[in-house]
Amino acid sequence: MKAAFVKSPFEFKLEEVDLPELKPNDVLLKIKASGICGTDLHTARSEAKDWQSFGHEIVGVVEATGSCVDNVQIGDSVIVESGSFCGKCEDCRNGRTDLCHDRSPNVFSRAQNEGLTMGFAEKIIIDRQNAVLFEGVSFEEASLVEPMGVALDLCYTVRPELNDDVLVVGLGPIGLMAIQIARAMGARRVFAANHSRSKIRVDIARKLGVDDVILVDKTPVSSYRFPRGGVDKALVTAPPSVIPEVFSVMNFGGVVGFIGIDYGEGRFIKFDANYFHFNRLQLRASHAVPALYFPRCLDMIRSKTVDVRDLITDRFKLEEIESMMLRAEREKDKVIKAVMID
Asked: Which of 39, 97, 219, 305 is catalytic?
């Protein structure tokens, strides 16, 4: 079968590879859809010191199963949990699978340790626990479930409530899904903040019914006039550098959640701890590993509580992975979510 490999900076190749024999708990999938994530771009940019497989937003159809697999069968449609939970540690045994440190089985570690392929390939071998059955959703829509789990984890971390005013910073796929989830959780008003150069992202946010979009290159968030003076909850899907300014528009007792990542000096922030203290603010980190909540995300897509269709701006074939990765890197303001389709 064919599989794509990446090496930094932005080198790609397609190779014919042989799949190993299935282990008892293994499931072989024919990949039907696989999305490009910001993590893939970071890997291509600087992290792939040698050739490696990549892609973890995966949907497929079961082609074969190991002798101990009883949760899926040949022909089933499944979404791949990129990283699951062990079910054995204290956190798992205490009902906090979201805090599992083992994070196994995991498609990243298996690819690294066993030389298996990942999402940008014709097929993939996964552990049975990583296979989540689904129906009633297209393959390409289902490929948004993995990043949607990230948006849901961010919302669970912050907990928007009835009548809260909410600010979503950053209008990538996570931010655009978080807008819809926050509204479903009871937010009274939802504001979005993004740079004006990405017209498509701003337009989609408005289509999704945000109360306003703050174009940060024209109106800094800190100078925007919110109806209640500020916001109660903030969901930051942008680099950490924006967090201090977000603090300045939080209402008393406000909660800020963030998933933004940066590297080098950009990962450090500085803020007034006294202001933070006396205004009783909270800063909470969301890190959606293990990847959870897939059934709930599927339900929200099916019911159109979260509409992901407009987020898919680009579709491509495996053979086009190099040109699509380069476009996603160079034209970030035009590409929201690119999905490889079979």
From this structure: 39
Closest by Cα among 124, 139, 174, 175 to 298: 139
Range of the domain at 219: 148-285
Number of domains in the chain: 2
**Domain identity same for 167 and 55:** no
Phi, psi of 135 (to 5 degrees): -155, 165
Taking the C-alpha atoms of residue 65 and residue 128, their distance in angstroms, rounded to an integer, is: 8
| Residue 195 appears among annotated catalytic residues | no
Q: Are 194 and 213 in contact (CB under 8 A)?
A: yes
Question: CA-to-CA distance for 277 and 293, rounded, in angstroms?
Answer: 33
Say if CB 36 and CB 337 are below 8 A apart. yes
In a domain, 291, yes or no: no
At position 46, the amino acid (one-letter code) is S
Let me know whether 124 and 46 are in one domain: yes
Instruction: Determine, yes or no, domain membership for 299.
Output: no
Q: What is the CATH number of the domain that holds 214?
A: 3.40.50.720
Report strand pairing: 131-133 vs 189-194. Answer: unpaired
39 flagged as catalytic: yes
Question: Token pair of 93, please?
Answer: 């045994």
Are 312 and 250 contained in the same domain?
no
At 327, list the tokens: 């476009």
47-92: pLDDT as tens digits: 999 999 999 999 999 999 999 999 999 999 999 999 999 999 999 9
DSSP 321: H
pTM, 2 dp: 0.95
Length of the chain: 342
